[in-house]
Amino acid sequence: MGRVAAAGALLAALLMLGAPPAAGAELSGVFQEMVQSECHFINGTERVRFVKRFIYNREQYVHFDSDLGHFVGDTPYGEEVARYWNSDQEWMEHRRAAVDRHCRHNYELSTPFLVERRGERRAERVPSGPALAVTL
Questions:
Q1: 107 compared with 38, residue with greater pLDDT
Q2: β-strand partners of 4
Q3: Position 134 confidence tier, pLDDT thresholds 50, 70, 90
Q4: Which fold has domain 33-115?
Q5: Long-range contacts for 65-69 (Cβ within 8 Å, ≥24 apart)?
Q6: Secondary structure of the chain in the HEC alphabet?
Q7: Cβ-Cβ contacts under 8 Å for 98 (sequence gap 6 or more)
Q8: Among 65, 45, 41, 67, which residue's Cα sits nearest to residue 53?
Q9: What is the pLDDT of residue 4?
Q10: Whether residue 90 has pLDDT greater than 90
Q11: pLDDT value at position 40?
Q12: Which pLDDT band holds residue 31 (cuts at 50, 70, 90)?
């Protein structure tokens, strides 16, 4: 009986930690919700696109696209959520401003680190313009 109890405790722990069930097994009742933000930069910050995706159990149900300027439903439930969120104009202005607040701000912070490292090979830095090559 001790082995059965230990196996049951192990199974319960794995289900609580969110381990995927075996093929053909019932779901455990553990659900996952995720929000993913993406910034797409074209020609520096000249053209920036902000996309925020809302995902539930590995399925994207609604997303915000700054090129469109509003939420778009990807499932029937997502369409209802998008209608509700799009109806709040004050919140939509806040969401539209995310391009500047989130993307452009972070681009300015990370550019010195990312852009200056382009072309680095071992201890040599490849110049990006009229500057001279610098050997470290």
A1: 38
A2: none
A3: very low
A4: 3.10.320
A5: 66/96, 66/98, 66/99, 69/96
A6: CHHHHHHHHHHHHHHHCCCCCCCCCCCCCCCCEEEEEEEEEECCCCEEEEEEEEEECCEEEEEEECCCCEEEECCHHHHHHHHHHHCCHHHHHHHHCHHHHHHHHHHHHHHHHHHHCCCCECCEECCCCCCCCEEC
A7: 37, 50, 52, 66
A8: 65
A9: 45
A10: yes
A11: 85
A12: confident
Domain extents in the chain = 33-115
Helix axes 76-86, 89-96, angle to 10 degrees: 100
Q: How far apart (Å, rounded) are the C-alpha atoms in residues 53 and 43?
A: 23
Distance of CA 115 to the CA centre of its chain: 22
How many whole angstroms separate alpha carbon 73 and alpha carbon 84? 11
pLDDT in tens, 33-45: 999 998 888 877 7
